[in-house]
Amino acid sequence: MLEVAKADLFYGASQALRGVDLNAAKGQVTCVLGRNGVGKTSLLRAIVGQQPMAKGRLIWEDEDITGLAVHQRARRAIAYVPQGREIFPLLSVEENLRTGFAALPRSLRHVPDQVFTLFPVLRDMLGRRGGDLSGGQQQQLAIARALVMRPRLLLLDEPTEGIQPSIIKEIERVIALLRDTGDMAIVLVEQYFEFARDLADSYVVMDRGAIVLEGTRADMVESDVRRYLTV
């Protein structure tokens, strides 16, 4: 399980996280909902170590990882799919996938068959440049690159952003399959309510850097959540 405890995070004088608590268990999808600018991405950046916390603790698989560098967290099977995908446009699809090898021991530096089972379109595009793919294909590539790391914790930042509906459905199917394997904890940041609702085992809603609502999918009240999603 992942435990984020009382996390504070600042960008200069601006406070992005205010005492945030979050738990994410293996075999479950934990959704983080909220408008733009409320701290959702900052929370993921804190978990992977891209932005240091000013206060609080991060526990992953019974280890305090608060002080670990980004590459040390990656070696503990923590993978991040950032908002905007951030693939390498001039590298081929295969080369993009191989960048996921960096955190792996040499014996595991191959693309697992699961990647092409989940995203068969990528097998036919291995030689194409990442920048030549559609937005939806790039999102599939970004998730596949994270899966190359054999993650036990997968962080997804708005995977539906700018994606056509058919690919959104495909990504929803993949996330559900990954959850159902039971050996991966998934934290999903999302603004698309229906997508998050259908996948969430548990959820938190953020506003102004703090958690303002939380619960399970069974006790989610749609009107209460949507109040924090509309502008």
Describe what this molecule looks like in 3D:
This protein has helices spanning 40-48, 70-74, 93-98, 113-118, 120-123, 135-148, 165-180, 193-199, 222-226, and strands at residues 2-11, 14-24, 29-33, 55-60, 63-64, 78-81, 153-157, 185-190, 202-207, 210-216. By secondary structure, it is an alpha/beta fold. The protein has a domain at 2-86 and 153-226: 3-Layer(aba) Sandwich (Rossmann fold), CATH 3.40.50.300. The strands form two sheets. It has a six-stranded mixed beta sheet, with helices on both faces. Strand 9 and strand 10 form a beta hairpin. The longest helix has 16 residues, at 165-180. The protein starts with a strand and ends in a 5-residue tail after the last helix.
List the helices and strands and how they pair.
Blueprint: E1 2-11, E2 14-24, E3 29-33, H1 40-48, E4 55-60, E5 63-64, H2 70-74, E6 78-81, H3 93-98, H4 113-118, H5 120-123, H6 135-148, E7 153-157, H7 165-180, E8 185-190, H8 193-199, E9 202-207, E10 210-216, H9 222-226
Parallel strand pairs: 3-8, 3-9, 6-7, 7-8
Antiparallel strand pairs: 1-2, 1-4, 4-5, 9-10
Q: Could you list the spans in which at least 5 consecutive residues all have pLDDT below 50?
A: none
The percent range for strand residues is 25-35%
Oligomer: single chain
| Strand line-up of the largest beta sheet | 6-7-8-3-9-10
Q: Specify the biggest β-sheet.
A: 6 strands, mixed
User: What is the approximate shape?
Assistant: globular
> What's the overall average pLDDT, rounded?
94
Helix fraction? 25-40%
Query: How are helices and strands ordered from N to C?
Result: EEEHEEHEHHHHEHEHEEH
CATH superfamily of one domain: P-loop containing nucleotide triphosphate hydrolases
Helix/strand class:
alpha/beta
Overall CATH class of one domain: Alpha Beta
Helix tally equals 9
